[in-house]
Amino acid sequence: MTNSNGSLERPIRMVAFIDYEHTSGGGYQQAKNAALLLKSLPPELCAVEFVTTRRSTIDDLRRSGIEPIFFPVPRLRGLAARLGSIYSRGGPRAFLRKPGKMASVDRLLSVMRADIAYFTTPSNLALAIDRFNYLFTVWDLSHRDDVEFPEVRIKHEFERREFLYGSALKKACGIFVDSQAGREKVVRRYGVDSERVHLMPFSPARATVLSEEAYVEHFVDVKTKYKIPRDLKYVYYPAQFWSHKNHVFLLKGLHALESRYGIHVGAVFTGSDFGNMRYVRSVAADLGLGERVFFLGFVPDGDVPYLYRESIALVMPTYFGPTNLPPLEAFSLGVPVLYPDLEALREQVGDAGLLVDLARPDSMAEALFSLIDQPALRQLMIERGTRRLASNDDAARLSTLARVLERYRTRAVCWGEEVWMN
């Protein structure tokens, strides 16, 4: 049914997929942010149902107000890499399904009477869709930007990502990226029409957006809970233990701070081990920092704001970008940020972060010393962070989403539902 404007009278029926484990750190948090944003769309425009492929996320999503359907997809992670390996031998269609048989993702969307799917993560599931339209998310193209790192090379990870982006992006009705730099790379590297790539900047994890009243009400004494000495000043880094997260730079920066200025500062790391924690621990021991570096692993979301607030600063010397969640979380909690002086990343923080040279750990020592020695500088950086965060609110994100969906709704009047069943 259509109205006089030639668009559907009824709301678009969207199925949004959340395809990351809840222990995946910033990736999962951003997917959840995207899902929560969808709930704010006008109901006359879009009716959304949520699907998670990870059983471990169900309780957390429910606590956040998202009621998901569980859709198990065993062994899906290797799908794109295997498809890539056979692509030159006839293409993926026969691999995905038998001729005339609807693939399982299409069947799910058919049962749910979906008009369109939305992948809130860079999901391999998009490769299994044949009969439905979809929106896709790209967070980074770091496998091309920083090809040296093992996590984008081993176990065919480079090939998996290349096949995923090379195949899924061209069929997407809309692609969401988090920065202008990311948009330009998607268009240039994968030959996607620029008008289909939409800017959707990251927002802080909801657990870190607290009023002062909520902060006091739910207070967690993290130093006692995690046995951190009461008098220890520390920097905080929430990041999974991948090599590109560059924990080693942070440790060398603390060593330089002690050597040059005689100031002893510790570090608190949170995040799961993806193969590099043992090496980072060994570097901490070699530098004589073992007693003041704390490896807390994956911690509850509710503890994170208090770990931030107890710190001198967020130090995030990652190589991958162009954007990351922790700077936004630090801005929201009034914590100064040290961030890489890399072309692809500095755009995110602007003048609200102290930029460090990843080739010079002493640049981190200099920035930290300035924060400790100059209270006025610390306050200035906090104020700039607050302004930076306020300049990009959910209203702009919702406007982008609504514009994409209105365009789709206007076009969807051209076919009936049964066309997808043929």
TrEMBL record:
CDD domains: GT4_MtfB-like (cd03809). Keywords: Transferase. Pfam families: Glycos_transf_1. The keyword Transferase applies. GO terms for molecular function: glycosyltransferase activity. Residues 224-387 form the Glycosyl transferase family domain. InterPro entries: Glyco_trans_1. This is Glycosyltransferase involved in cell wall bisynthesis. It comes from Paraburkholderia tuberum.
